[in-house]
Each structure stands twice: as C-alpha cells, then as structure tokens.
Design a protein that fits this description.
The protein is 37% helix and 20% strand. With 271 residues, the chain is of the alpha/beta class. Helix 3 crosses helix 4. The chain starts with a helix and ends in a 6-residue tail after the last helix.
Length: 271
C-alpha cells in the first residue's frame, strides 16, 4: 500500500476542518436529531467527505449506545449506525463513482467514515478511507474485508478511544494501521503486544486522542518516510510518481497547508 503524503495530509486537514462551523466552498450536511455533521468538498479529480468527531452532548449519547445492530452489511455499533443513517441518504447523492473519493474523520467522525466506506464497498472502485483515533465499529467475528484502494487507520500510542468499545468489538481487519508509538519507532500494523506495552497513563490516554497531536505525529512520520524512501535528490521524480493525487486536486487553503508541511519536513514538492 502506498502511504501517499498528499492524501494523508488532505485527510488530516479535513478531519480538523470538520470541527469548524463553516468551511468555504463545501457542502455541509447535518442532522439536528443526532447532531451528526459532514462536509463534502468537490475538487478537480477527488471529492472529500469529512465527518465531524464528538463535540456535542448528543454525540456522547451516540458513543454510549453500544448495542450491536445490523447495518452496512454487517453487525456494528448501534449508536454509530443511527448517527450515520441520519445523514447518509443526503451524503450519497453527492458521491461520483467516476472520481476518487477520500472519506475521513477523527474519533466519532472516523467511525462514520468507516461506515460510509462499508456502504460503498463493491459499488465504488476509487475510495480512500483515512481515519484518526477511530473507535471500534464492527463485531470482531466479521471477517469479510472491504476491498478499497487505500484504508489507513492512524492511531497514537495511548489513545484510549482507539481501543474501545471492547466486549465483542475490535479494530477493522481490512485497514492498515499507521501506529504512532510513544516509545520507539512508528509501526505499520503493530502486533497486539506492542500496543499493550505502549500504553501510557490516564493523562496520556486522553491527550493522545487530540487531533492536534495526530497532526504533529503525522508530520514526524512523513519526515522519516522521506528520509527512508527518498534519500537522494535524484529520487524526487520517483516520489512524484508514487503520489496518488496532485496539487490540482487541492484548494488554496490545502495548498498552503501542504507547503507548510513540505517546508517543515523537506519533502519533494508535488506538481
């Protein structure tokens, strides 16, 4: 799987933007019943669907309703299913199967993003799913993987939300986990032993869930990836071949954010 730095940055940026009350040049869909909010940004060759994470009182009720229900082709967290269903009919009207679609979100938003990808599984060939601090959504016993282009679940070492709910729920087997370790290197699909040993105290388990922390750790990860994969300037052209999307897909604000990250990590420019 290609860990596309532009795609990861775009997902990170929009997972943060989803917490704003307004985003320029977007379609905003929200349910007053569940308080679920999603932004849709149409770009030249990629559409972004960003779900907001837990923010209001009703969101906490959504998180707490863990009774499993059949939804999106499998058994899943009942609260997440209700929240997703409250907006999905309107969201899917804006999905173009001919374009690459990036679905992203942080915390509860990541869970709703995963449900969206599950709903589109087998119906859309150009889906990218990238989540940050996503709680468990599906029953552990469900083995059928989603067949998507790119499925990345970013998890910080002590993030307690990324480990719950437990009981009969577990992390998705179909996603690649990008794990930001507290002590030692970052991992791709770490073992259970590594994750258990990496847990911090209660304070760390709360602060590691913050989206700002995910943004900082993603920058560090991309910096190390650049050093490892493209150590020489002659490798810049190879780097650009590996990118799934280009600058033409980004808004002016996203371009500024990407430029800031490129300057900080000295990553080859994306043209």
């Amino acid at each position: 799987m290609k860990l596309d730095p532009v795609l990861l940055n775009m997902a990170c940026s929009w997972a943060m933007n989803a917490y704003k009350e307004k985003n320029k040049d977007t379609i905003k869909i929200e349910s007053k019943w569940t308080s679920t909010t999603v932004y849709i940004a149409k770009r030249k060759s990629v559409d972004v669907i960003a779900f907001r994470g837990t923010q209001q009182g009703r969101d906490w009720l959504t998180d707490a309703f863990v009774m499993p229900v059949p939804y999106a082709g499998r058994l899943c967290h009942g609260g997440f299913a209700l929240a997703h269903k409250s907006v999905w009919k309107k969201v899917k009207k804006h999905i173009d199967p001919q374009k690459r679609t990036l679905i992203c979100g942080h915390s509860l938003g990541g869970a709703l993003a995963e449900l969206s990808a599950s709903m589109l599984n087998g119906k859309h060939d150009n889906i990218n799913l990238i989540t940050f601090g996503k709680p468990n959504v599906f029953f552990k016993g469900f083995k059928k993987p989603m067949k998507l282009d790119n499925q990345i679940s970013c998890v910080q070492g002590s993030d307690m939300i990324a480990r719950v709910p437990r009981l009969c729920y577990g992390p998705s087997k179909s996603q690649t986990m990008l794990y930001f370790s507290n002590a030692g290197p970052d991992y791709i699909d770490p073992s259970k032993d590594i994750r258990v040993a990496d847990r911090g105290g209660l304070k760390d388990r709360i602060t590691d869930h913050m989206m700002d922390g995910y943004k900082d750790r993603l920058k560090e990860f991309l910096r190390e990836q650049k050093k490892e994969n493209y150590p020489q300037k002659k490798d810049v052209s190879k780097c650009e071949e590996d990118l799934l999307i280009s600058k033409n897909d980004l808004s002016k604000g996203e371009l500024r954010e990407l430029k800031r990250i490129e300057d900080e990590i000295d990553f080859p420019s994306v043209d």
